[in-house]
Amino acid sequence: MLSLPDDMPEAARLDGAGEFTVRWRIVLPQTKPAAVTLTLLTFVNAWNEYIWALLVSTANPRLMTLPVGIQMLQSDLDPDRMVPVMMAGLVLSVLPVLLLFLLLQKHYLRGVLLSGLK
Q: pTM for this structure?
């Protein structure tokens, strides 16, 4: 938000817009692609967290996250059945991140298109 030029908010203030209106209608739409990117990266980081989830879920196996559960499958299955089951688990672990990306894709494209404009 600090890198945004002051021209548009200043013009809105000269037209009589209040501070809330300037932030809500001018600044926030311009920073939406960056906020969406930050949201997605934070979600992916929390989704793929392994060490913290392993430490917390040792007391109750029902609380295991998907990455910890997939790793636990490696020790529970025989080698012949291990690879297909682990691959299915990995596909399931990627689906929420892929779905979130596809839902927010229009914001990424808008950010890319607007970043080239002066």
A: 0.61
